[in-house]
Amino acid sequence: MTGISIKQALRMASHAIAGSDTVQLDAELLLAAVLGKSRTYLYTWPEQVLTPSERSYFESVLERRVMGEPVAYILGTRDFWTLTLRVNRHVLIPRPETELLVETALALVTTPDASIADLGTGSGAIALSIASERPAWKIVATDMSGAALMVASDNASLLNIANVEFRQGSWCEALPPMLFDLIVSNPPYIDSTDPHLTQGDLRFEPRSALVAADDGLADIRALCSQAPHCLKPGGWLLLEHGWTQGPTVAAILQSSGLESVQTLKDLNGNDRLTLGRRALVLPG
Ligand code: GLN
Questions:
Q1: Which of 25, 84, 205, 251 has its CA 20 to 30 A from that of 38?
Q2: If we measure between CA atoms, which residue out of 181, 179, 274, 186 comes closest to residue 236?
Q3: Domains assigned to the chain
């Protein structure tokens, strides 16, 4: 077997994974991981020849990618916000769109010692990003899945983030008896008949993190019926949802009694987040 260079290995990989939306990036991330180097290294040393063991390791990860396995699960990590998070098949792969939720959360709350809840935390992406920016805030992160909470709490330890408490359970039932300045969630919101579920990365991700009954709205409805009771007066509920769900989710928040309801668009111009706040002066 003659040696192949970094440049040839990248070309071979791009051919093999031609179906992916992010062919070049996938190839670079996988080869960099196999070599234990940065992506920049690949362009600095394009003529460097792979050792036989590097080549066979690269071929094996490429094979997994060709079978459709997401790059994040093959690498075991995904960058989100300023953090590198561990991920596995028990958690959704953090999406760039969700960084808007983190950004919005940080802008909404100005209290120095705020209490925040992240419901359905998965890898911990949202809770840990907020916690890393606001070490004085107290953050509670919940999930139904014990396997997901292990990933999230491992991420907290690896990143030395100490201000997040992890609790297992369904939505607000998992929360301690206290009121929050902000409750955030990226709940499951895809309808079970959505054809995207049979395509790309979604095929490998936990269904319980993606799919909800009632046209994808069942969990959003459950959250909206519970969360207002767990908010301080003036506290915010901030939810991620599908790009067609903005008006419906806004109506659900309104009928849960929340005020100042608005929907925000992501960088692609799609409705992505809806927020509303509990009244400052409570009736009665
Ligand atoms: N945004 C994800 C997707 O469309 C779904 C995430 C979710 O259901 N919370 O792939």
A1: 205
A2: 181
A3: 6-68 (1.10.8.10), 89-277 (3.40.50.150)
From 80, 93, 210, give the residue whose CB has the most ligand 1 atoms within 8 Å, as the site to mutate: 210
d(CA 4, CA 191): 45
202 CB under 6 A from ligand 1? yes
Q: Would you say the CB of residue 95 lies under 6 angstroms from ligand 1?
A: yes
User: CB-side exposure of 218: number of CA atoms within 13 Å?
Assistant: 12
Q: What is the pLDDT of residues 39-54, one digit of tens each?
A: 999 999 999 999 999 9
Which atom of ligand 1 sits closest to the CA of residue 240?
9
In whole angstroms, give the CA distance from residue 179 to residue 49. Answer: 59
* Whether 118 contacts 134, CB under 8 Å: no
How far away, in angstroms, is 210 Cα from ligand 1 center? 6
DSSP structure class, residue 120:
S
Q: Could you tell me which residues come within 8 angstroms of residue 43 by beta carbon, excluding any fewer than 6 positions away? A: none
Q: Specify the pTM.
A: 0.94
Ligand 1: centre distance to CA 44 (Å):
36
Q: How far apart are CA 100 and CA 58, in angstroms?
A: 34
The neighbouring-strand residues paired with 126 are none
Identify the bridge partners of residue 80 per DSSP, sorted by sequence position.
83
Which of ligand 1's atoms lies nearest the C-alpha of 98? 1
Beta-strand runs (E) in 92-223 = 115-119, 138-143, 164-168, 180-185
Locate tokens 């008949």: which residue?
A: 193
Tell me if residue 225 falls in helix, strand or coil: helix
